Structures are given as C-alpha cells and as structure tokens.
C-alpha cells in the first residue's frame, strides 16, 4: 500500500531561515522584560518564591517546603532550584531577582527545545515537502530550519505562555521538562545517544517538579507510538522510555510528587473560553495542520507533538479547567502550528497579518496613551482612570525604560513595513507579526506600565504601611492568611510569621487578619486594633492588624 501524498510544497526561496540576529532579538524581547525591577506578584508567583526564600534562609527544611511554619505541597525540585539560586546570590542579588534568574533560563531552554524538536522532526522523510517536477524544491536542512523558526515564533505568539511563562513557579520547570522530552524523542534517528540521555533526564525531572502522572502518561503514550513506527530508531526508544518512566516514578516518591489534584467539575463554556485565548493563535494553525495532514497523523513528526498536547488538554479537563496544566501542551501545539505553514493559503496568511497589524498596533497605542496620561495628567479622563484603578500610585519617569519602549515600538513599525510592503515567500512569514506583536506588548507593559503593575500586583505597598504600626522585632500571627500574604510578610516585613490555625493563641504579639465586606469588623476579644489597610486594587477586602 502506498503512503498518502504529503500536502507540503516548498520552494527553495520559501525555505530561507529567519536571520539569527532577528531571532535572538525576538527571544530577548520576550524573556528579559519583567526579569528586573519588580517584586514577586501575588498569587502563585509570590507563594512559590516565599517557599524558596524560607528554604534559603533556613526557616523551612529543604525536604519539606513551608510558609509561616505550615507545610505546603510544593514540588521540591523547582523550589530547590530557586532556593539554591537565592543562597548563591546572597548578599549581592536581591532574593526575588536571584530566584527569577533560573526560571528565566528554563524559559530559554523551552524555546531552544521547541526549535530543536521541530528541526529534527522536519528532517524526517514523512515531514519533507514533495519534490518539484523540474527541481527548485527546498533543501531538506534549509526546510527544517525554516520550520523550526516558525515553531519558535508560534510559541512566542501564544498568549498562554505570555501569561504564565514569566513567573517563578513549578510549572515553568514542568514546561521545560516536557519541551526537553519532546526534543529528546525527536532526536532518536539523528542522535540516538543524546535522545536516550535526554529521556532519562526529562521524565524524572517532570515527576520531581510535581507532575509524575503526566510523566507516566507521556511515557506510556510514547511507547505505544514508537512501537507503531516503521523507522527502527523510533522503535528502539521504547525500552528507554520504560526505564525513564521507572526513574520518574522513583523520583516522585522522595520529593512528595504523588499528590492527586483532580476536580472533574466540567464547565464546557468556561473550558472553551480558556482554550480559545490561552492557545491562540497556535490553536488555529494546529487545527489546520490536523486537517491538511490528516492522513499522516501517525507519523512521528505529528504524533509526537500531538501526544504532548493531548495529555495537557486531558489534564486541564480533569483538573476543572485549570490553565496551568494547559501550559505543558504549548511545546506540542507550537510544533503542530509550524506544520501548517507550508500548506497555509495566501488569504489565510493575509488575514493573520492584517489582524496582527491592527490588534497589536492598537494595543501598543493604548499602552502609550495611558502612560502619557499618567505622566502628564492629560487627557484628564485617562489619568483619572489610572488613579482609580491603581490607588495611591505616583507616576515616575525612567529614561532607560522609555528608551527600551521607544526602541521596541520603532522595531515594530519597521517589522510592519517590512511585512506589508513585500510579498515574502518564506514559510514563517505569517508568524512574524503575531510573535512580534506579543513581544512588543510585553516589552511595553514591562517598561512603561511596570511601576503601575508592580504597585497593583505587589504586596510591598500594603506591607510597608502595616510595618509602620508593628512593634520592633514582634512576630506576626496570620492564622487565615493566604500563602501570598504570609510570603509577603516574611519577605517585605522581615518578620517571623506563624500561619498555623492556632496562631492567634500562640506567643506572637501581633495578629493579622483578612476580612471581606463593606466595612472592617470590630477587633476580636483580647486584641487592640493597630491598623486597617487595603491593597490598591481591592475595595471590599480589609487587612486588619491587631496587638495583643
């Protein structure tokens, strides 16, 4: 039986690679903004950082993460990475920056792994374009490089990675492990020894980072797929996958990785909305890939990324539509999106380009507009809107941030002119503007808007106001405090915090409670009110400080 005809037709001109300097600038504009000059933001970012800081400063065991003396279920490997970086950086680096650096490097590893995986998969015979009748088709290596550039641009353009990819959380370590797993499997033919070594590292790292079940499912799925391949190199990976799964299972036990987080209360409408924005625009291109390559889905270049993407989708469903498991499907969907590029029709490519031009140009204009309004007070309605949204924020001017923002905006204008004034044949052309627009908006937000965002998302303004009313060296009882609040008290206030349920009955002289409502409640019996504070973005939440 003859194999079905491949749908890709790529000329030699279309297989030009993206200039390396431009590719590096794309990655730098995506990774570096937000790395410097900000506090950990409330939520998972601050909670994970607080556990790393407690380990590094000796307030928690390295074998049992804790906040305020209360054990957490945090995965050990990511917290070890952050805590070790804090310890190595002390006292020269701020702990928040020191913890953020290795996770930025993990994001870089993810970008590199996606590029290498798509490059290796594109070199396989079923993934290559059809030859032309009279020559002129793309060289195999040139085609693979162009496809890998497209996969990297698709990953950068995906909104879900922008939202969660710049945080100091265990999910970034999981993402890097999944991307490395995909990279290792893709190298089975060209570099079998490297592939086997990568497998023995990637799945145990994924399990030790808090996702052992996903590691087991990925290993099982990869074993089934590898045994169905015709290429002996793919089939030879099956024993190594089994060994890697066994190592992952063993690695999960001592680091407390086996913790079920199932919450299958499925809301299809919410799930659809999450998938729509989180996976955009790679999801649209991946859907086109699955249609155009539908007769080739069992070939390795499609089956492998489809496996990692499908496992992440399933994890999101069984965890009540959570977005963080969905993050682990981005390496797979980026590679799938790249294989849509050789088959994309001209009208679809033009629609992507014009949508990107208008959407991201408008977004950049809005960022600049409100920045100018906050700085100058004109126009007054816009300045008043900023003052209402971020109470207590005082705009400050930074020439360095303004310089980077202006350079990024000029680069975007040049990119738009380049793309709209030339009919380029290169296959990655349709993803240049989406990736550039996402990088531009992130750069502008982390330069022009960073002080306002930091004021709104950081606990520093609240903790500084609370600290003015605290007795010297007094410990703080926070029996119902969120992990973010406990971490903020330990980091910003430099106080010992007791967050146990019985903390109010302990020896701490100060009590901190958080209550919601239209007015603060009266002080508990035996306590005297010291302060009543609110975060800049909260209207109905009060942080109450009492003294015994």
Notes on the protein architecture:
There is one protein chain. It is built from 23 helices and 7 strands. A 5-stranded mixed beta sheet has the order 4-3-5-7-6. Strands 1-2 form a two-stranded antiparallel sheet. It has helices spanning 20-31, 44-56, 76-89, 95-122, 140-157, 159-164, 170-186, 192-208, 212-227, 232-235, 238-252, 268-278, 282-292, 300-318, 324-327, 330-338, 346-376, 380-389, 399-421, 432-445, 450-457, 460-467, 483-492, and strands at residues 66-67, 70-71, 476-477, 497-498, 510-516, 528-533, 541-547. It is mainly alpha-helical and 548 residues long. It starts with 19 loop residues before the first helix and ends with a strand. Strand 6 and strand 7 form a beta hairpin.
Note the gap between the termini.
83 Å
The helix/strand order is HHEEHHHHHHHHHHHHHHHHHHHHEHEEEE
The average pLDDT is 90
Give the beta-strand count.
Answer: 7
Uncertain ranges: none
Instruction: Please work out how many helical segments DSSP would assign.
Output: 23
Largest sheet: 5 strands, mixed
Shape estimate: globular
Strand content: 5-15%
The SS-based structural class is mainly alpha
What is the topology, as strand order, of the major beta sheet? Answer: 4-3-5-7-6
* Count of distinct structural domains: 3
Helicity, as a percent range: 55-70%
């Amino acid at each position: 039986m003859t194999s079905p005809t491949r749908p890709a037709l790529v000329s030699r001109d279309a297989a030009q690679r993206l200039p390396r300097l431009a590719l590096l600038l794309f990655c730098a504009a995506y990774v570096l903004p937000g790395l410097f000059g900000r506090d950990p933001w409330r939520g998972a970012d601050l909670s994970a950082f607080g556990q790393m800081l407690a380990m590094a400063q000796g307030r928690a065991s390295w074998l049992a993460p804790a906040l305020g003396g209360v054990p957490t279920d945090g995965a050990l490997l990511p917290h070890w990475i952050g805590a070790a970086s804090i310890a190595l950086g002390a006292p020269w680096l701020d702990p928040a920056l020191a913890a953020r650096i290795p996770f930025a490097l993990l994001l870089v590893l993810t970008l590199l792994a996606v590029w290498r995986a798509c490059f290796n998969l594109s070199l396989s015979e079923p993934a290559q374009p059809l030859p032309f009748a009279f020559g002129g088709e793309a060289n195999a290596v040139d085609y693979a490089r162009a496809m890998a550039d497209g996969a990297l641009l698709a990953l950068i353009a995906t909104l879900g990675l922008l939202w969660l990819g710049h945080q100091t959380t265990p999910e970034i370590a999981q993402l890097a492990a999944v991307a490395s797993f995909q990279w290792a499997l893709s190298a089975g033919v060209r570099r079998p020894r490297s592939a086997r070594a990568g497998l023995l590292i990637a799945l145990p790292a994924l399990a030790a980072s808090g996702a052992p079940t996903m590691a087991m499912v990925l290993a099982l799925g990869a074993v089934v797929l590898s045994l169905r391949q015709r290429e002996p190199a793919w089939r030879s990976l099956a024993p190594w996958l089994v060994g890697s799964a066994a190592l992952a299972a063993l690695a999960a036990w001592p680091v407390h990785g086996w913790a079920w987080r199932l919450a299958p209360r499925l809301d299809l409408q919410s799930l659809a909305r999450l998938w729509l924005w989180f996976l955009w625009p790679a999801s649209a291109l991946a859907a086109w890939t699955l249609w155009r390559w539908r007769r080739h889905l069992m070939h390795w270049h499609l089956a492998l990324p489809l496996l990692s993407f499908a496992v992440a989708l399933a994890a999101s469903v069984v965890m009540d539509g959570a977005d963080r498991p969905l993050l682990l499907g981005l390496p797979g969907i980026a590679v799938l999106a790249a294989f849509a590029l050789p088959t994309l029709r001209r009208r679809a490519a033009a629609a992507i380009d014009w949508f990107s031009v208008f959407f991201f140009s408008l977004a950049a204009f809005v960022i600049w507009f409100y920045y100018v309004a906050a700085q100058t007070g004109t126009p007054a309605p816009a300045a008043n809107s900023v003052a209402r949204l971020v109470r207590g924020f005082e705009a400050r001017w930074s020439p360095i941030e303004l310089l980077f923002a202006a350079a990024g905006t000029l680069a975007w204008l040049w990119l738009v002119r380049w793309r709209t004034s030339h009919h380029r044949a290169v296959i990655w052309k349709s993803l240049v503007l989406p990736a550039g627009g996402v990088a531009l908006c992130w750069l502008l937000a982390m330069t022009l808007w960073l002080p306002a965002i930091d004021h709104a998302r950081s606990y520093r303004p609240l903790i500084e106001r609370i600290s003015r009313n605290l007795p010297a060296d007094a410990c703080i009882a926070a029996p119902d405090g969120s992990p973010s609040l406990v971490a903020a008290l330990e980091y910003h206030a430099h106080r010992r915090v007791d967050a146990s349920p019985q903390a109010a009955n302990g020896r701490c002289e100060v009590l901190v409670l958080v209550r919601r409502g239209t007015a603060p409640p009266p002080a508990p019996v035996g306590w005297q009110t010291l302060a009543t504070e609110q975060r800049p973005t909260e209207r109905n939440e009060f942080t109450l400080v009492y003294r015994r």
